[in-house]
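Support request, priority: normal
Reporter: lab tech (M.K.)
Component: structure prediction queue

Hi team, I submitted a job for MOSC domain-containing protein from Streptomyces flaveus yesterday, and the status page still shows it as pending. I've pasted the exact input below so you can check whether something in the sequence is tripping the parser. The sequence length should be 180 residues. Please let me know if I need to resubmit or if it's stuck on your end.
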Amino acid sequence: MSGTVTAVSSNGEYSFTKPNRDSITLLAGLGVEGDVHAGVTVKHRSRVAQDPTQPNLRQVHLIHEELFAEVGAEGFTVVPGDLGENITTRGIDLLGLPVGTLLRIGDDAVLEVTGLRNPCLQIDSFQDGLLKQVVGRDAVGNIVRKSGIMSIVKEGGVVRPGDTIAAELPSGPHRPLDRV
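Reply from support: The job had stalled in the queue. We restarted it manually and it finished. Here are the results:
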């Protein structure tokens, strides 16, 4: 399974959206250099309030560009960085990957998939009604989260638009993604 990086984004300040960059540098065990969510321990404000010592399983947020077309068909305009992701992808089924999948990006970077992004009400502040587009229910009533996946940096490196992404599935029984 493979795909391509279509955009990279980061922000040193807390903000819902993240500006696009020419490149980002991933730092092993920390996240995106200069990004507000980088660190060994959790940086998401609500999670810090609960327990600031918990490990940061949300160092790098990836989202599939195909979602933008899906919500676009419902009248929403979303472009890379708008939903706060660090890496926008094309051609890889991020939501279908199991926990522990390694994503080899570009020449050096390796991410380990930790889980699904749990979208919050800020999405509706960005565009009213968008939250219902990225969180729904399947045919049997299970919650379906479509706003990307979270990961940690196993090996650092520079990531640029156009870089290839190769997924390496973990051995053994696969655990489906859950929110982190």
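The mean pLDDT is 95. The domain at 2-168 is CATH 2.40.33.20 (M1 Pyruvate Kinase; Domain 3). Let us know if anything else looks off. Ticket resolved.
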